[in-house]
Amino acid sequence: MPSYLPTLLPSCPNSLLSPHGRLLSLHQPQVMGILNLTPDSFFAGSRVASEQDLLARAAAMLAAGAAVLDLGAYSTRPGAADISEAEETQRLLPAVQALRREFPQAFLSVDTFRARVAHAAVLAGADMVNDVGGGTLDAAMFATVGRLRAPYVLMHLRGTPQNMAQLTHYDEDLVLTLLRHFRDGLVALRRAGVVDVLLDPGFGFAKTAAQSHELLRRLPELQALGRPVLVGLSRKKMVYGPLGLSPEAALNGTTALHMVALQGGARLLRAHDVAEAHQTIQLFANTFSMAE
């Protein structure tokens, strides 16, 4: 292990425990289904139009093999408009409550960088906080998650969703930058009492398509931190850009890169297309179990 990395855990944890008592097993890779409560998410096919639509999509994702449902009420696509905390909360909480009512055993994640939104969502029944800011956009986030005893996704981001596209220059090795970011974040989270942490490299967040491909190729290097890795590359520019396509035409490319991510050690695939991601995991497991 590199000298600048602390000893955080002897091995990658195999499960995450919700403050509500629900358990997410990561003994095998799993799928996190994306449910966007925003009107301007980059992939139009992911936008939820109503509560009825939300429940139907959630039911289909769970039936297709989703182990986690991830709800986002603030668009983080490059250049997306900022919205108030109140608006984000008004979008998010009714969705959490509806899903908890209809699917009491489902493991629910909330995609927010605001501590007060995360707090309200977990009290409403959410199980995990998925923070694209990695604690950099709200100084109260780590302490809040620690008090909640909720699993937490620590992502790498520079700047904000509004200006991150202009912050893609790195003075040092990109993976080294991420390792240091995660090292410092894990130390701070441990001090705040957060036990269960996943790492997300932040594909496309203050990273060009070429940089995102480098991160994917070097994904195994993140294993030094002893934490499970979440990969969120579904239908992103790193997929459709090199192919000259649109997000709507990027399912096949997403599947191809999901297999690369699994080979690099990813434990959770955040995906718009749950059935296809789940099938990729099944084929990955079948191929490598037969090779042993």
Notes on the protein architecture:
One of its GO terms (biological process) is folic acid biosynthetic process. This protein is α/β, with parallel strands linked by helices. Helix content is 38%, strand content 14%. The protein has helices spanning 51-64, 85-102, 115-123, 141-148, 174-192, 209-217, 237-240, 251-263, 274-291; strands at residues 15-17, 23-25, 30-36, 68-72, 108-111, 128-131, 152-155, 197-200, 230-231, 268-271. An 8-stranded parallel beta sheet has the order 8-7-6-5-4-3-10-9. It has a two-stranded antiparallel sheet with strand order 1-2. The longest helix is centred in the middle third of the chain and has 19 residues, at 174-192. It is globular and about 40 Å long.
Assigned CATH superfamily: Dihydropteroate synthase-like
Strand content: 5-15%
Order of helices and strands: EEEHEHEHEHEHEHEHHEH
DSSP summary: helix tally: 9
Oligomer: single chain
SS-based class? alpha/beta
Low-confidence stretches: 1-12
N-to-C CA distance: 26 Å
> What is the domain tally?
1
What overall form do the CA principal axes indicate?
Answer: globular
User: Mean of the pLDDT scores?
Assistant: 91
User: What's the architecture, going by CATH?
Assistant: Alpha-Beta Barrel
Strand order of the biggest β-sheet: 8-7-6-5-4-3-10-9
